[in-house]
Amino acid sequence: MTISRNARFLLATLLGIGLAFIYIPLTVVVINSFNSSRTFSWPPTELTTKWWGMALDNTGVRDALKWSIIAGLSATFIALLLGTALAFAVSRYDFFGKDVISLLVVLPISLPGVVTGIALNNAFTKQLGMSTGLLTVVIGHATFCIVVVYNNAVARLRRMGTSLQEASMDLGANGITTFRLITLPNMASALFAGGLLAFGLSFDEIVVTTFTAGPGIQTLPIWIYNNLFRPNQTPIVNVVAATLVFISIVPIYLSQKLSTDSSSGGRF
Amino acid sequence: MQKKRLFSQIAVASVAALILAGCSSSNDAASSSGVPDVPMMESLGAGEGQVNLVAWAGYVENGSTDPNVDWVTGFEEETGCKVNVKNGATSDDMVALMKTGEYDVVSASGDASLRLIYGGDVAPVNTDLIANYADIFDNLKLQQWNSVDGVSYGVPHGRGANLLAYRTDIVNPAPTSWGTVFDANSPYKGKITAYDSPIYIADAALYLMATQPDLGIEYPYALDQKQFDAAVELLKTQKPLIGEYWGDYLKHVASIKSGGTVLGTTWQVNINLAKGEGTKVEGIKPSEGSTGWSDTWMISSKAKNPNCAYMWINHIASPEANAGVAEWFGEAPSNAKSCDLTADKNHCATFHAADDAYWEDVYYWNTPTEACLDGRTDAKCVPYAEWVKAWSSLRNS
Amino acid sequence: MQNISNTMHKNPKLRLAALLTAPILWLVVAYLGALATLLVTAFFTIDSFTGNVLQIFNLGNFQDMLTDVAYKNVVLRTLGIAISVTIICTILAIPMAFYMAKIAKPRSRKILVALILTPLWASYLVKIYAWRTMLEPGNGVLEWLLGPIGFKSPGFGGPAIVIGLSYLWLPYMILPIYAGLERLPNNLLDASGDLGAHNWHTFRRVVLPLIFPSLVAGSMFTFSLSLGDYITATIIGGKLQMLGNVVYQNFSINLPFAATIATIPVTIMAIYLWMVRRTGALANL
């Protein structure tokens, strides 16, 4: 590569500044989880571990985590099914209206969450007379998660081409066997990458969730939102956030491990 | 005495409002009073096994937040009613949630309760079925925001006044009037705060009520177009003074503590919290009186679990639970017997729970309707939906 | 099973139908249907007493929206914020992504990708509150750190919103650009260099056009997520509101008016999507 020394140095500096921009606030979150002030005043006059203790005792946060994981996994599952089916249809067939599919799948994530949220809320509760609950949260999340699975799957299908499939069919395997033994294994890492991103999107989603969650279901972001409004508990949200950052190493490590063929690894 | 007259007028107005409401909502079966005819529960049966609540954060604690803060588990064990709760972030949220018909009970503030009653979303409450109702402070019962025509629509929960906070080490002299937050030449320009909700228009109206008698404002939630415009105009002149509008307590307290905010509307609980962290701040009820809030536990007209709903309302009005909530949330309890049960023995004194005189000039949040709530029949008042639009407009003009 | 499979294999139309039915039903009927229902509500009104929606066709809401200068202000302000956020994220992301994709060694590249992904898992709300602590005028973290070199916090308001949103969405800009750069063959850059082009020239004439779809893909996130945000503005926006706040405020008391306001971001995004449709950006998300 013909990149001059100076340019390299400049780029490294800019990267450093970017990383500082990303990590200084996260450091503040971690420090504030030890800050004895209930309102995060800076600099901390006294450090304490009591918020960590309170967070451990707090069963509400564990329930919320459970709901977030259930909702995230369900939404990811639906997004995987729908996104993959759509990707197959688009990359292997010709049909009327194919051009607008990419526009259609991208719509739920590109329109503001507050619009998607009130549209779904209005449809569920006023038009359909449904109860809001886990189901409606999952429907809402799956809708905007389809696009990430779809894009990953389409990209992979395009690179795979059809030759392997044809070879398998020529050798006598039927459609299902071919899909099971050839297509699926080749798509696995792309689907995993898409699925992970979908789960991540669902996990930290708050706006659509606000409008679609019913009684008895409180996802982690909603729990955090509610806790910011009660006078006694605020600092434990920093504990939760700090913990999440540390836990996130697991899925990130997994995704990198599984996507060693780097061009899809690049997309998460 | 002024006060007495006002309330009798309000009673008359309520009747007028009902008649008008009856005319305008032709699609609901309306009783003679104009409120949708929702039957009242006659007797209690066995619990249904669960109850779904809409409540302010901190009103329904089952120990999941703090193992020592729990007035739900005991109730669940005793009655067999499992409690599911959804926290509403604003009064508007709560109304929307109740309209879905999925919830049995709501802790409605005064700016939500009338809307719920007239929308036919909540049922009259048979107070004979609620043993603890007898101990509720009398000046909270059968008020304009929780009853219609002497029929109670819920059980009062707690109350608080919207106070004027000031940093004692910065604001000098100490304020005595709301005028300090509307003073265009205020030395504290950019460090004043106001509550971020359309209902804050009533605070401006309250100030005008005292300072501009020509406008003829009698009740800050009953404003005809001219009075309403004057209040909004006052808020427009106030806007350059504002540093931040606050909605959540955390932002508000942090700002008071840092000195970003030195003067403005607050709640008692915020003052206590900031003081607890060593901030020099006081909250007063200025000479004009103040707005305030009084929440009411109400039961949905479409309740699927009415028996458990009644049991919950009775439970939450009990001295033990009421004291627990009042202390956890930071408000004045509604049950007279709660004061003996609070962990902090000064709690009721701090929050003026039993001090009737203190509440005389507190105007609890109410829902403005087209029929003026102050008894005028010759004028049309600005309804709440218009307050919301005006607030959106004000915040962005 | 075998039979189904055979029938499916022989009949491509059937296979296509099987693949398309569920996703199309979901996206068109459930999602677009809900959206259309909401937008139709914009032409309704409410009972001023109960807040119930009355299905009487009228244009009053649009009239209110168009005649009040406040709504023009909030639209322009929101657009300004969304565009600023997109520009800042682009400027920050390109050098970072370039270093990651073209200079860093494979091992450190992985670590860098992980470092960019990590903040996505810390809660949105917690991060914005952290920025409140950062920007607090007088005793925030930034003034505490940089005060000695004369830094003054901009306080809470427009600049704070732009900083906060840029912070939240930066990873969504870095990742597509990084992926785009990684797909770019190194010898292309070498060739340009061999032909005598300078670094900057190579970047502007060769790299930038090739990663343009990735840039647009990133901007879809930064722009649209900023356009619809209302929580950041509430927490660090000082006195300012954004379009999302107005929609949120009116939602429960006056759904028709909230729907009317919602038509603005929907229209803006529709135009935006239409414009970028041909760049291939939609496949790069």
TrEMBL record, chain A:
It is found in: Cell membrane. One of its GO terms (biological process) is transmembrane transport. Keywords: Cell membrane, Membrane, Transmembrane, Transmembrane helix, Transport. Pfam families: BPD_transp_1. InterPro entries: Bact_Polyamine_Transport (IPR051789), MetI-like (IPR000515), MetI-like_sf (IPR035906). Its main location: membrane. One of its GO terms (cellular component) is plasma membrane. The chain crosses the membrane at residues 9-34, 67-88, 100-120, 132-150, 179-200, 206-224, 236-254. CDD domains: TM_PBP2. It is a multi-pass membrane protein. Residues 65-255 form the ABC transmembrane type-1 domain. Belongs to the binding-protein-dependent transport system permease family. CysTW subfamily. PANTHER family: PUTRESCINE TRANSPORT SYSTEM PERMEASE PROTEIN POTI (PTHR43848:SF2). This is Unannotated protein.
TrEMBL record, chain B:
CDD domains: PBP2_polyamine_1 (cd13588). It holds the Pfam family SBP_bac_8. It is found in: Periplasm. GO terms for biological process: polyamine transport. GO terms for molecular function: polyamine binding. Keywords: Periplasm, Signal, Transport. GO terms for cellular component: periplasmic space. InterPro entries: SBP, Sperm_putr-bd. This is Unannotated protein.
UniProtKB/TrEMBL annotation, chain C:
It holds the Pfam family BPD_transp_1. Its main location: membrane. One of its GO terms (biological process) is transmembrane transport. PROSITE patterns: ABC_TM1. Residues 75-276 form the ABC transmembrane type-1 domain. The keyword DNA damage does not apply. The chain crosses the membrane at residues 16-44, 74-99, 111-131, 151-170, 206-231, 251-275. It is a multi-pass membrane protein. It is found in: Cell membrane. Keywords: Cell membrane, Membrane, Transmembrane, Transmembrane helix, Transport. The keyword Cell wall biogenesis/degradation does not apply. GO terms for cellular component: plasma membrane. Belongs to the binding-protein-dependent transport system permease family. CysTW subfamily. This is Unannotated protein. It comes from freshwater metagenome. The lineage of its organism: unclassified sequences, metagenomes, ecological metagenomes.
